[in-house]
Amino acid sequence: MSRKRSESKSSQPGLLTEIQTPIRTDGLDSHYHITSDELGRGKFAVVKKCVEKSTGKEYAAKFLKKRRRGRDCRVEIVHEVAVLESARWNSRVVNLHEVFETEHEIVLVLEYAAGGEIFDHCASEEALTERQITRLLRQTLEGVHLLHQNNLVHLDLKPQNILLTSLSPLGDIKIVDFGLSRRLGAGSELREITGTPEYVAPEILNYEPITTATDMWSVGVIAYMLVTGESPFAGNDKQETYLNVSQVNVEYCKEAFAGVSELAVDFIRKLLVKSAEDRPSAADCLSHPWLWQGAWGSDSDPPLSQPPRERSAGKWGPPIPLGNPEDKENILEESPSLPKRFRFDSLAGESVL
Ligand code: ADP
Ligand code: MG
């Protein structure tokens, strides 16, 4: 009825092969009503809303083709399952409910993120407020931080792969799509040409080693898009986009950043740097004052997350009351319990607009 754990070894670096979830072969249709509501579609996957017959609960079923371009890709799908399993404790990652297999497909039954992609908010006329954006980014960084602590890199972070639990009120984020993710370490160095041109870091294009900093570049691109509604490196064609990325050809022009705080630009600027070693980590980012500006106070929602007390330990400390959140000096000097910053302590004095 179901197949368990006996997955073949993979020769590809960074792929996980061990899974705990039983792969059911007793028919998705007998347990779920698959609706015609298509939630999304990629090259090799289609995602549909479904309802579990026994509970009436809604889920998202991701149908993955086992053969792609004439090649058997079951190992890669098993890896995606394994990564979702290992991130089960990470509440910012979508939960995996069940797995089914048919002759040509493997179907991941996932927690349903009813609020859609944060991409819709980048492209929308009705822009999010800076406070909403920083809340979503804090949550994204929490998720990424936990993945990185586990030596996992996502490698396809983009606004289409960051979903929301609800739209109105604006819910919490869920990171999806671990198809390109990899485990770091484990002997061999990881270099791959992977990802989506607009969002990939220069080291990917240069076939240089992949590290957790590769994801941090993408976080910078996502932050830029949420704030401005524009894609910072998108060119007229792929070639132009690649060139823009590898030359870090990014504009912080007045029009796009009108009304955006200087701290936001500081945050983005520090992530979109060519040298991967110079990019702040997810934990570093979580201590950037922009993300906590106006995060609490009389007129704001209580923060869902809190800054790490110690950056490296990744512990989330209690909220630190800010004096005047607009006043950077106050934040840095009058909050002794704020973690020490190394990359963010020199807030750009120059006007960045
Ligand atoms: P692909 O590998 O094809 O990009 P994804 O896992 O990113 O597949 O899914 C494609 C799209 O389907 C996502 O961008 C999103 O719009 C939608 N989607 C994926 N998972 C869910 C989910 N759990 N809940 C709601 N929508 C989802
Ligand atoms: Mg995707």
TrEMBL record:
PROSITE patterns named among the record's database cross-references: PROTEIN_KINASE_ATP, PROTEIN_KINASE_DOM, PROTEIN_KINASE_ST
Protein kinase domain mapped to chain residues: 33-291
The entry's keywords: ATP-binding, Kinase, Nucleotide-binding, Serine/threonine-protein kinase, Transferase
Stretches with biased composition (Polar residues): 9-20
Annotated region described as Disordered, given as residue ranges: 1-20, 297-337
Name of the molecule in the record: Serine/threonine-protein kinase 17B-like
Annotated binding of ATP, by residue: K62
InterPro entries, per the entry: Kinase-like_dom_sf, Prot_kinase_dom, Protein_kinase_ATP_BS, Ser/Thr_kinase_AS
Source organism superkingdom: Eukaryota
Entries under Pfam families matching the protein: Pkinase
Assigned protein family: Belongs to the protein kinase superfamily.
Coiled-coil residues: none
